[in-house]
Design brief:
293 residues; signal; AB_hydrolase_fold; 12 strands; three-stranded antiparallel beta sheet; Lipase; 8 helices; Rossmann fold; alpha/beta; nine-stranded mixed beta sheet
Length: 293
């Protein structure tokens, strides 16, 4: 009940300032028509270019939607705080699959799912960049964001582009200025280097039962299961960024599980202030916040 009340209050707050929402189709892949919703400040100056949050929802690659309540609230918050908020759909490769995305889903299919998500995300980013003038987008200030499956998709797209994307030349204009990951993980954190490391926000629970907080198998599958695949979660990513002297904001929930994949309405002020300082003002900040409650 408390969480519902918090969400209703937040939705009331973000709707005080008006935004405009426009939907575009960015790709058609087989039977999937992939769309994105663009939330603009209603009174934004048409000649101005704005930083952007490009968001990928969660749902285990089998559910979720770009216009879910919290995704919409996040995009509206962005639009009310000097950003363009964009929430995308993508191919839900595990929807209706009997093995789902857990321990019975073969490792090869998991990697193929990650690849498709990274490709879709890059296609959405390319659409945004190609239409930057119409959307009032500053192409040098795009923040890649996602939750759970979406966080895995964006982390792999940003930091493992060379591994998952075949036609790199196609996406040469796509560059990201920041990362916002909720309960996400990467296939191999060694792909994060001094050359590609960017300011990153990470939220994760230490006892996440699906996506590892540190280095562990996805869904904690046993080594003899088809879906055994080691991923490296937020604690590994944050340590890598610390070593590289790159900005990060790491929110740790002691004992927290996968509920940390939910949009943190309670801490968005700190998240966006972090991006304003690091992405817009080019400051270096490293913060680790531990919630013991």
């Amino acid at each position: 009940m408390k969480k519902l009340t918090t969400l209703l209050i937040f939705l009331l707050i973000v709707t005080v300032n008006a935004q405009t929402k426009t939907t575009y189709t960015y790709a058609i892949k087989g039977k999937d028509t992939l769309q994105l919703d663009v939330y603009q400040p209603e009174n934004s100056v048409t000649t101005a270019t704005l930083p952007t949050l490009l968001w990928m929802h969660g749902g285990g690659f089998g559910g979720g939607a770009r216009d879910d309540e919290r995704e919409q609230a996040l995009a509206e918050y962005a639009a009310n705080n000097g950003f363009v908020g964009i929430s995308i759909s993508y191919r839900l490769m595990r929807k209706g699959e009997p093995t789902g995305f857990g321990c019975n889903c073969p490792k090869e299919e998991k990697l193929s799912t990650f690849k498709a998500a990274a490709e879709d995300y890059m296609d959405a980013a390319l659409f945004v960049i190609n239409n930057a003038k119409k959307l009032n987008i500053n192409t040098n200030k795009i923040i890649a964001g996602g939750s759970s499956a979406g966080a895995e998709g964006i982390l792999n797209a940003v930091y493992m582009r060379e591994y998952f994307i075949e036609n790199l030349e196609k996406y040469k204009t796509v560059q990201f200025a920041g990362v916002f990951s909720l309960a996400g993980a990467i296939v191999n954190a060694n792909y994060i280097t001094k050359e590609n490391a960017i300011p990153t926000v990470l939220f994760h629970g230490t006892d996440d039962n699906l996506v590892p907080f540190g280095a562990a198998s996805h869904h904690y599958c046993d080594v003899d299961k088809p879906g055994y695949l080691v991923l490296e979660g937020s604690s590994i990513i944050a340590e890598k960024l610390r070593e590289l002297e790159t900005s990060y904001y790491f929110y740790v929930k002691k004992g927290g599980k996968h509920e940390m994949a939910g949009v943190p309405l309670y801490d968005l002020d700190n998240v966006f202030n972090f991006f304003k300082q690091t992405v817009l003002d080019d400051k270096t900040i490293q913060i680790k916040k531990i919630n013991n409650k």
